[in-house]
Amino acid sequence: MDASNEQTTERTDLQRPLVDQKSPSSDVGLESILTENSLPYRRRVYLGACIELKILLRLALPAILVYIVNSGMSISARIFAGHIGSHELAAASIGNSCFSLVYGLMLGMGSAVETLCGQAYGAHRYDMLGIYFQRATIVLALVGLPMTVLYTFSYPILLLLGEPEMVSYMGSLYIVGLMPQIFAYAVNFTAQKFLQAQSVVTPSAYISAAALFLQISLTWMTINVMGFGLMGISYVLTISWWVIVMAQILYITSSQKFRHTWTGLSWRSFHGLWSFFKLSIGSAVMICLEMWYSQILVLLAGLLKEPALSLDSLSICMSVSALSFMVSVGFNAAASVRTSNELGAGNPKSALFSTWTATSVSFVISLAEALAVIASRDYISYIFTSDADVAKAVSDLCPFLAVTIILNGIQPVLSGVAVGCGWQTFVAYVNVGCYYIVGIPIGCILGFTFNFQAKGIWTGMIGGTLMQTLILLYVTYRTDWDKEVEKARKRLDMWDDKKEPLQN
């Protein structure tokens, strides 16, 4: 009798994560509604939309807050720098643009965890989530070591790229203060993906919001009370990222929600590091190529006529674009979680429905954001600087910014679907072709050869983004979701430690 009770208790405990963390696959019956042929098609779509929107917004809204706050930390640093002086704003913009290299690398490599953890959670293979988390953190930390060497030589590298000497020097000092962030990224992004795969996003939002408040308060003190200037801004930004990391780790290790997915540190996490590195490279290339694309626009601006004006106006537009982009990235995270969970659970119709629901909602929101940007085009720059010339330059660029925001309402969500399905390598090839073979060369020709300056560079880049978006739309439309379910099952079998081929 006692043995029977213990077995019953054990089975109940194994299912408890689904209840505690409100796994979408377990309690809503989306797949059963979508496959119920006795219901009219419109009725199925309506009921499915009601269910999916509730799940999607529950995931996306806290994720949006997390990404907006994380982006807001960088933007607030630029705002403080801009109110010190125009050279400080240019230096902070160049520094953040250069540092996006490691940000994109870490975020991209962390996306491999998103695919594996999301599909493992949907398939109820809970014990592997903590192993994937630890394994990815180790790999990302090792990758961060050579990046510190690269940033040590940021000053000569910026000069080699043709940036102004004063901006290069001040930018390199700013980067030195950011270097400890590299290892904060290594832990933060893997922890975020670990939590997101289990539909736990709200605590990260609270942690990030508290860190932003701390950063703004400390930055004001370092500038106005201590007089540290630009270096104080970068040091506080680094401290704030480490506050986020420590709070996330404390939450994961102390909460009972993760008693089945986090079982403590394990030597198993050191197995197959090279294989995990190779898996994450596709994710890294996909994300990096996307993030560097817009940052190259800022770097190219330093080579135009009146580089300080071009850098200031473009960096302001990129900051607004990045803020809008974070909304789409929130839906990117939600789409990735939903797709990977449903594929892991063997629900092809739910995966398909989640994909198009997230894309449609994100597009509508981005359209509203673009209209707001056009309406405020003459005033938006004064958030960052009081310079009238910069304000006029930003106003002239706002139509390009609006088009970029609309495209960014679709493309990141489809990239999230790609992560959920494990298509990172394919999307990386698409990004290379669209961004670096089409977008940047056309932008350089229009900007430098035809002397359209920043508008020409941005036009070329919009063309590359449009091409990539159309390709992803077509590929997603043509996807056989039943085959994706089978691929997810095979992927989990391959990466399960009980059947692990990683030692081969």
TrEMBL record:
Q: Which Pfam families match?
A: MatE (PF01554)
* Membrane-topology annotation of the record: Multi-pass membrane protein
Q: Which CDD domains match?
A: MATE_eukaryotic (cd13132)
Grouped into one coarse class, the protein's main location is: membrane
Disordered, as annotated region: 1-26
The membrane spanning regions, by residue number, are 89-117, 138-161, 167-188, 200-223, 229-252, 273-293, 313-335, 356-380, 400-419, 426-450, 456-477
Q: What is this protein called?
A: Protein DETOXIFICATION
Say which species the protein is native to. Raphanus sativus
The organism's taxonomy opens as:
Eukaryota, Viridiplantae, Streptophyta, Embryophyta, Tracheophyta
